[in-house]
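Progress narrative, Year 2. Work on Alpha/beta hydrolase from Carboxylicivirga sediminis advanced from sequence curation to structure prediction during this period.
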Amino acid sequence: MRVRKSIIIGLFWALTFGVGINAQNSFFNPEVPDVVQYEVTPDVKYGEGKVNANGKVAMKDLTMDVYYPKGESSEPRPAVILTYGGSFHRGNPRSSYTGFGGQTTSMSQYAMRYAAEGFVVFTVNYRVAPDNPIVDEYSGYTEDDIDVSIFTNPAAVAQTNMIRQQMGLEALTNENAEDVLKAAVLAAGEDLRTAIRHIKAESDVYQINPDKIALGGFSAGAVTSINVAYGMQEKVSAVFTNSGFVAGLKIDNKLATAESNPPIMLFMSDNDYPVVTFLTQPLIQILKANAVEYHFNWVPGFGHFYPGGAVTLSDTGDKIPLIERTLGFLKEKLQ
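Result:
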């Protein structure tokens, strides 16, 4: 128990201090020059999510940016859906994070590159804790499948409150922390699933193959991708995660009873947050036990925040930049 508590403390101190979010539009511009090999349609509505607005139930529009390869294709294209990180409290697809000597590549930057390689890419916004999301119906999972204990340890609550203080939010208490964080984690998953279903239903509009969709994300976005692909068992063809782990939904039983599970590519830095290091090992054991294809890669020389150009090391010993390794994985599984 003491080990678990120290890990939680380490995680939330790291989340709180020395981390900056770069300006919203730093890496996003819908007006792109002709030399750029993609086109983008910003702020496309993919659904609505229920929120508590000053004590009243309201609906929040859920939006995404859509990146298309330039040029015509004789057949529907494969798709990638990207989910940003931010402790289930903050962030957006167009922003990057800077801290601890590193800077992330934003989801919009990844999308630009993937679109230039022939994928239609969707970068989604989703409900976060300050939205006061409401999740009052479960589909594809039950209360027994939920485990948010990693977020609700008293030490974690104290550190989460430092983030909330920076954002001008009311502090959580030990009494309401579980409800607030549980709602945020589940809402993120519900919204990503809504996006997947919308994209599949409108596959003709987006000119994509609904049977060739991959999920990818960073940190909280990586956790959400894992929850949706394995915990909710939403059908996708592949998953890749930057510093993701299992939290929110238990996936063991779901993997064991599923007809099939998508392959996953995992990235973790050698100086990542303790919780990532601590929870990646059991994730790999679960994947192994259920014969899920996985590819684990180290990102040396960085903490939790690392760019797409960072060199990665696989178990075969090869050295490939992260974005190139994910592209190889996507092309193998989707094209």
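The domain at 2-334 is CATH 3.40.50.1820 (Rossmann fold). The two ends are 46 Å apart (CA to CA).
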